[in-house]
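B., you asked whether I could sanity-check this one before it goes into the benchmark set. Here's the sequence:
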Amino acid sequence: MNRNLFLICIIVGSLLLSLFVAPQFANKVIDITHLPVPKISARPFRLGLDLLGGTHLVYQADLSKVKTSAADSMSGVRDVVERRVNLFGVAEPVVQVSGNDRLIVELAGIKDVNQAIQLIGQTPFLEFRTELPRDQGDQIIKIKMGVQAGDLTAAVLCDPNNAQAFASFLLQYGADPCFQSAGLDGSHLETSQLVFDPQTYQAQVSLNLNDEGTKRFAQITQANVGRQVAIYLDGLPISTPVVQTAITDGNAVISGNFTPEAAKTLVERLNSGALPVPISLISQQTVGASLGNESLQKSLKAGLFGLIFVALFMILLYRLPGVVSILALMVYVLVVLSFYKIIPVTLTLAGIAGFILTLGMAVDANVLIFARMKEELAAGKDVARAVDEGFKRAWLSIRDSHATTLISAVILYMFTTSIVKGFALTLGIGTIISLITATLITRTILAAFVRPVFTKRRWLFG
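And here's what the prediction gave me:
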């Protein structure tokens, strides 16, 4: 009675899972039957870059001025870029560090690649700089400009009234003859917000620094009272205020000539994360949606043919138990696909390969069970006893094989790259679920056929 109840639960649960996996089918049933129930939301599977199409970007970070370790800097870059592409709405982006100074970004299913590249590339690099001694500035100007420098001095070029000439010098020659890094940058930023000057009503950007930034900013302002502390964004000065008094509360204001819209945009960019180091795009590869769709169709076809051939093999070799194993396999497929949607799992070609591999594992467990059953039947035992002994004798082998596969999947997931991780994740999920369906569900369904009407025909059990 308990087994029959469990069997009914399996059937009902499988139907519910099938509705979740194939909502179009469920909605069609609702339309035909006119049931007064809401339609099921068609939640799609999450597909990776190689199936959905998208772009593969490689960035190189400039670590020449990094004072911390390269690993820490790249970790910060990865975190910031990941936040920005998440704000862009990309499904399951892949952002990972490669080597010492490179960042790989995979964006699946995006419609505007250039907009995404612009979004990542324009992530602001915010930096505070203090005045450079004028003699050092003069030396930089002479070295960079040579005879063209003439009588140009740092005192002239660094005058706030010559901001345009100073910006032109930076763009053309790169070296800064006016300011030097103060060791305070966007990584020390907590939040920023749009404010307005109460006297001039000019749009400004208010900055709130974290604990470390507050300490550094206090030291910088204490040492530079009466002197300029410039605020640079992406290598160019946007504000060069004179420090009137030491600021120890961690609050600063950028008072460039902002329009409200420009200040608001800057606030949004800063709040979503300022890069600890500059990055530049060095490689771009795009996978077209049609190529991704072709790969998906081929993968699905391979899985379907694999399922059909496995079903034929099991039915021809094991007969009724083979039919039962296919029923259990269908339950397995529904459960696994439902898990892929619920978690959700990003399906790539490697991930689908892992799923197809677990189909074979699920059936392999049944092969061990049914082979033991045939041995018991050949020894003259009745069907009920043969079924019971088959499961008992095969359990240790099934447990050990699944355990070793699961260990391998965990190791692959922990110590490999994203492509292999997709394979490891689907392999691990499939291994756990196949252990359940190949034993508990198969045994419950098979027990329902251990009735006189079937057991007197021993050939049905192989």
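One thing to flag: The longest helix spans residues 383-415. Otherwise nothing jumped out at me.
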